[in-house]
Design goal:
With 301 residues, the protein is α/β, with parallel strands linked by helices. The chain contains ten helices and eight strands. Strands 1, 4, 7 and 8 form a four-stranded mixed beta sheet that branches. About 2% of the residues have low confidence.
Length: 301
């Protein structure tokens, strides 16, 4: 998901939040409520798709490694038993076909490894009647074939997973397009029905909808801390975003900045040696915008 798509996705979630906060009144306009229900269902689908797409391939890769290790162990034993038989019977051709050490199997390319294991299996099947005294049984060859098939399946899983992720990326774009269609052609128009009775809802909705594309800079909060009595900047003042556990200090010009920062409503504190602490609740940080919050601290009496 690129920056533009992420910004649009975040905007949709903000719109959903605004609608959730005003859920009690949405039913006054049935068409708007229906559109919101469709909108929320698509957002849930988008988030589920994004979560699956972000799942790492690490587990799949580890499974493939385990299957290869298991196969290498089994085929090494079978090849060794068969090599002993070929040595006793002076079957030089068979000896050459099964003369592999465990380390050699691990060094092979995947396709070569599978081909070699399958060849050893088939040679053992062809000579099974004579190999029984050397520890090669039909049951062991069945297990070997199962290990070969398991590794072949595990070879395909990472490729399939990558293909699925590519498909999911396309699905995300389609879902975003559907969300945009509902917003533009239904909700943005129908919201006007609430203007007279619920102006705050309409205002908050339209404010959320302004965020359609990422700004040139990331979401951030900045400002300046000054002495209330003379307006001079305060160097080394501490500014804290409580909910995010973020803290920074002002420079010599009294300036501070949080970049990047999550969007939402936060409690912000400012403090400095020799000054009274100051706190502001419900400070709104808007997605994709540069919000400013200046402070004028009073000196301690």
């Amino acid at each position: 998901m690129n920056a533009r798509q992420k910004a649009k996705s975040d905007m949709c979630q903000v719109v959903e939040q605004v609608c959730d906060e005003n859920s009690a009144i949405l039913g006054e306009i049935v068409a708007f409520q229906t559109a919101v229900n469709q909108f929320k269902a698509l957002i849930a689908q988008l988030l589920e798709t994004r979560q699956f797409r972000s799942m790492p391939l690490t587990g799949i890769t580890l499974d493939k490694g385990a299957d290869r290790t298991n196969l290498a162990k089994e085929v090494t034993n079978i090849a060794g038993f068969t090599y002993a038989y070929a040595s006793v019977t002076r079957n030089e051709t068979l000896k050459a076909e099964v003369n592999y050490r465990h380390s050699k199997f691990l060094q092979m390319r995947e396709n070569q490894f599978v081909h070699t294991c399958q060849n050893i299996h088939d040679l053992c099947v062809a000579n099974l009647a004579a190999l029984g005294d050397y520890g090669v049984t039909a049951a062991k060859l069945t297990d070997l074939q199962a290990a070969i098939d398991a590794f072949k399946d595990s070879m395909l899983k990472p490729r399939l997973a990558k293909g699925q992720k590519a498909t999911l990326t396309d699905n995300e774009e389609e879902i975003l397009a559907q969300l945009d269609d509902i917003l533009t052609n239904q909700m943005d128009t129908l919201i006007a029905n609430y203007e007279e009775a619920h102006p705050d809802f309409v205002s908050h909705y339209r404010e959320a909808r302004k965020i359609k594309d990422p700004a040139s800079t990331k979401t951030q909060l900045k400002g300046i801390v000054t002495n209330k009595s003379d307006g001079l900047p305060i160097k080394g003042a501490t500014v804290t975003v409580v909910e995010l556990n973020l803290t920074t200090k002002t420079n010599s010009a009294g300036e501070y900045q949080f970049k990047p920062i999550d969007y939402g409503e936060f409690t912000i504190k400012a403090s400095a040696l020799g000054y009274q602490d100051f706190e502001i609740d419900e400070v709104k940080v808007k997605l994709g915008e540069v919000d400013r919050l200046d402070w004028r601290l009073e000196t301690n009496e």
